[in-house]
């Protein structure tokens, strides 16, 4: 029972506030630049929310958001798409400021008690609530299968092997798959996830994407118990 109590760490209010936070003009431009959702898909954003909750950062600053999203990429991604975050956070001189950014990220990780693993079940609960209750475009950011899973470098397009951070002053990162331009709209939910996590819960749980939202809020369970 104690382990289950630790899972119920995100409230509906936190999801709502985070969804509103992501409508900040700077964040919207950043997310739209990642049209293929390679470093800021809905699973990475949900992970960032959990990290923000664990650090007790309230309200969350834009700089902290970038650091925690970078950490989420550290934990869950193999390809260095995360470096595209740096010029958005640090500006054109991002290379000279990398050390201070990394120290800030390490400080936030310490504030989390180094608890970086997140169950897939909890991520899907957050996405379910955000997409169907908040009806936000943010939680529809599904990564296309072409960009998901594990591939050897020689099977990846050149634009995904030679990655140079571009930032807000240059055109977005290129994509080898032309068909994505019409599919990856802000409001699109047609693409499948293409996301694989090492921290998923093998045993599953009571919730699930289309099931009862059961692990987000302890108060919800109490109020809706028979």
Automatic annotation (TrEMBL):
Signal peptide: none
UniProt keyword annotation of Cell cycle present: yes
Top-level lineage group: Eukaryota
Protein name (record): Uncharacterized protein
Polar residues bias locations: 187-197
Region (Disordered): 181-209
Family annotation (Pfam families): Spy1
Keyword Hydrolase: no
Alphabetically ordered keywords of this record: Cell cycle
GO molecular function: protein kinase binding
Family: Belongs to the Speedy/Ringo family.
InterPro entries: Speedy (IPR020984), Speedy-Ringo_regulator (IPR052316)
């Amino acid at each position: 029972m104690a382990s289950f109590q630790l899972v119920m760490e995100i409230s509906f209010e936190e999801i709502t506030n985070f969804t509103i936070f992501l409508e900040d003009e700077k964040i919207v431009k950043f997310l739209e630049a990642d049209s293929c959702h390679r470093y800021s898909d809905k699973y990475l954003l949900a992970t960032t929310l959990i990290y923000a909750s664990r650090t007790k950062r309230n309200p969350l600053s834009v700089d902290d958001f970038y650091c925690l999203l970078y950490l989420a990429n550290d934990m869950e991604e193999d390809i260095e798409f995360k470096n595209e975050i740096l010029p958005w956070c640090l500006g054109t001189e991002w290379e000279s400021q990398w050390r201070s950014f990394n120290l800030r990220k390490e400080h936030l990780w310490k504030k989390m008690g180094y608890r970086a693993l997140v169950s897939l079940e909890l991520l899907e609960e957050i996405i379910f609530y955000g997409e169907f209750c908040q009806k936000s475009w943010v939680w529809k950011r599904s990564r296309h299968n072409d960009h998901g899973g594990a591939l050897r470098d020689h099977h990846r397009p050149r634009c995904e092997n030679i990655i140079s951070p571009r930032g807000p002053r240059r055109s977005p990162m290129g994509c080898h798959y032309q068909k994505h331009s019409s599919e990856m709209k802000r409001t699109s939910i047609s693409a499948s996830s293409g996301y694989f996590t090492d921290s998923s819960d093998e045993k599953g749980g009571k919730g699930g994407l289309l099931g009862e939202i059961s692990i987000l809020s302890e108060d919800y369970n109490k109020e809706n118990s028979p």
